[in-house]
Amino acid sequence: MRISFIGLGHLNSAIVAGLLADGYDRDNIVATTHSAASAATRRQEFGISVTAEEDSPGTNAQAVADADIVVLGVKPFHIVDTAQSLADALRPETVVVSVAAGTTLATLTSALPEGQPVVRTMPNVALTVGKGAVGLARGATVTDEQVAQVERLFAASGTVFHLPEDQLNALAAMAGSGPGYVFRFVNALAAGGMALGLDEHVAQELARLTVVGAGAMLDTDDADPAALEDSIATEGGVTEAALNSLDANDFNQVIVQALQANVTRSQELGA
Ligand SMILES: NC(=O)C1=CN([C@@H]2O[C@H](COP(=O)(O)OP(=O)(O)OC[C@H]3O[C@@H](n4cnc5c(N)ncnc54)[C@H](OP(=O)(O)O)[C@@H]3O)[C@@H](O)[C@H]2O)C=CC1
Ligand SMILES: O=C(O)[C@@H]1CCC=N1
C-alpha cells in the first residue's frame, strides 16, 4: 500500500511516526512540504522521501500519482486549493483522506474529480506514541475495503471510532485538541506549584510526572476515572478540598464552554 502525505507538519508527522514504529515499510511512504527546510528536517527525522513544493513546484502532483492513499495534512484553509491542484494527478481508485478540522466531506468531494473516494478523519497527535484517538467518517463513494485500508493506517498507532460526519467536530473538540488542554493543565499545575514556593524545575517535573502517572493509571480497558478520583479524594482530606474549589469555580462548565468554542471554530472553518 503506497501512502502519500501532502504536508508533513505536526499531525501528518504523528501518523508517519506511528506507522514507522509499527514497522511500516519506509519505501511505501512519500511526503511533501511547502518549504525545503521542512522537507530536509523531516527527511532526516523519518528516513523517508520528502520533497518540497518550494523546491520543485508540482511535486505534490508527482507524489500522489501512484499512491493508494493520499493524506491531506495541510491547514484547513489550504485544503480545497490543495485538493483541486491534485485532481488531475489522482488515479480514480486512490483514496483521499483529510485530517483537517472543520472541512466537510461535501467540500472535499466537490474539490476532487467526480466519484473520487474520500474519507474525513480527525486524529490526534498521540498517534506519535501509539496512543492516538481517531474519528473517521466515510464519503459516499469509498468502498468497505478502502475504509478498512484507511482504518489500518491509523489503527497501527491509535483507536479508530467510526462516526457519522456530524459528530466529528465534537470528537475534534474532545480528542483532536484534547492533548493541548492536558498540556495546558500541566503548565497550570507547574505554575501553581511555583506559586506555592517550589523551584521552577521541580514544579515542572512534578506536574509532568503527575500527568504521566495518572495517564498510565487510565491506560487499561476497564479504567474508571470517577472511581480513581474517589480513591484519591479521601473524605475530609486535602484532595476533596481542592476538588471542591474546582467545583466552586465551575470547572466542568469551563470545559463545556471550551469544547463549544472548539466546535464553533470547526463550523466556521467548514463554512
Ligand atoms: N496539530 C494537531 O494536533 C492536529 C491537526 N489536525 C489537522 O492537521 C492539519 C495540519 O495541521 P498541523 O500538522 O498542525 O499543521 P502544520 O503547520 O504543522 O503542518 C502543515 C504542513 O503543510 C505543509 N504545507 C503547506 N502548504 C503546502 C503545500 N502547498 N504543499 C505541500 N505541503 C504544504 C507545511 O509545510 P512547511 O512545514 O514547509 O510549511 C507543513 O508540513 C490541519 O488541517 C489540522 O486541522 C488534526 C488533528 C490534530
Ligand atoms: O487546532 C487545530 O485546529 C487542530 C485540529 C485539532 C487539533 N489541532
From TrEMBL:
<dbReference type="InterPro" id="IPR029036">
    <property type="entry name" value="P5CR_dimer"/>
</dbReference>
<comment type="similarity">
    <text>Belongs to the pyrroline-5-carboxylate reductase family.</text>
</comment>
<feature type="domain" description="Pyrroline-5-carboxylate reductase catalytic N-terminal">
    <location>
        <begin position="2"/>
        <end position="102"/>
    </location>
</feature>
<comment type="function">
    <text>Catalyzes the reduction of 1-pyrroline-5-carboxylate (PCA) to L-proline.</text>
</comment>
<feature type="binding site">
    <location>
        <begin position="6"/>
        <end position="11"/>
    </location>
    <ligand>
        <name>NADP(+)</name>
    </ligand>
</feature>
<dbReference type="InterPro" id="IPR000304">
    <property type="entry name" value="Pyrroline-COOH_reductase"/>
</dbReference>
<feature type="binding site">
    <location>
        <position position="60"/>
    </location>
    <ligand>
        <name>NADPH</name>
    </ligand>
</feature>
<keyword id="KW-0560">Oxidoreductase</keyword>
<keyword id="KW-0641">Proline biosynthesis</keyword>
<dbReference type="GO" id="GO:0004735">
    <property type="term" value="F:pyrroline-5-carboxylate reductase activity"/>
</dbReference>
<comment type="pathway">
    <text>Amino-acid biosynthesis; L-proline biosynthesis; L-proline from L-glutamate 5-semialdehyde: step 1/1.</text>
</comment>
<feature type="domain" description="Pyrroline-5-carboxylate reductase dimerisation">
    <location>
        <begin position="165"/>
        <end position="269"/>
    </location>
</feature>
<dbReference type="Pfam" id="PF03807">
    <property type="entry name" value="F420_oxidored"/>
</dbReference>
<keyword id="KW-0028">Amino-acid biosynthesis</keyword>
<keyword id="KW-0521">NADP</keyword>
<protein>
    <recommendedName>
        <fullName>Pyrroline-5-carboxylate reductase</fullName>
        <ecNumber>1.5.1.2</ecNumber>
    </recommendedName>
</protein>
<dbReference type="InterPro" id="IPR036291">
    <property type="entry name" value="NAD(P)-bd_dom_sf"/>
</dbReference>
<dbReference type="GO" id="GO:0005737">
    <property type="term" value="C:cytoplasm"/>
</dbReference>
<dbReference type="GO" id="GO:0055129">
    <property type="term" value="P:L-proline biosynthetic process"/>
</dbReference>
<keyword id="KW-0963">Cytoplasm</keyword>
<dbReference type="InterPro" id="IPR008927">
    <property type="entry name" value="6-PGluconate_DH-like_C_sf"/>
</dbReference>
<dbReference type="InterPro" id="IPR053790">
    <property type="entry name" value="P5CR-like_CS"/>
</dbReference>
<dbReference type="Pfam" id="PF14748">
    <property type="entry name" value="P5CR_dimer"/>
</dbReference>
<dbReference type="InterPro" id="IPR028939">
    <property type="entry name" value="P5C_Rdtase_cat_N"/>
</dbReference>
